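User: I'm putting together notes for a lab meeting next week and I want to include a structural view of one of the chains we've been expressing. I don't have a solved structure, so I'd like a prediction I can at least talk through. The sequence is below, exactly as it appears in our construct file.
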Amino acid sequence: MKHLFIALSFTLLFSQHSAVAQEGDVSASHLLAAQELAELLDLEGQMLSGASVMINTMTRQNPQLVQFEDVILEWAESFMTWEVFGPKIVAIYADAFTEEELRELIRFYKTPAGQKTLQVMPDLMSQGAQLGMIEAQARQEDLQQRIKKRAEEIASGD
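Assistant: Thanks for the context. Below is the predicted structure for the 158-residue chain, given as structure tokens.
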């Protein structure tokens, strides 16, 4: 739980820094394009479902937290709102893409292929993540051996 709090705090601090830095660096039309893309991608909905996934992951990894799931959800809902994160997310997109790139993305996501991409991407990402977990588990012994070797190197001062 302590590690999660630290990770969330770092994420919040970084996103606040990035958003503040970007607000003065881009034009109003650039931010409007980023906002339009955010709406088209339903980033608000993704953010809310991401919070739910985060809580489910936490409780799976630490079953003792199940009894606090409602408290964690209430806590997350208290600040994980579009009003808080929306402008910061828009600023991140404005930082990552030029205004023209944002407009190209908007044009694409309004096409039938773009709409299909939006529909199937979550499932594709989930399938990719599952493949990654399966491959990582199959190679877990190799990772353990590599960690053991590094630990021995550290202990011997190499």
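A couple of points you could mention at the meeting. Helices lie at 2-23, 28-40, 43-61, 69-79, 82-96, 99-109, 112-138, 140-156. The CA atoms of residues 16 and 63 lie 32 Å apart.

User: Perfect, that's what I needed.
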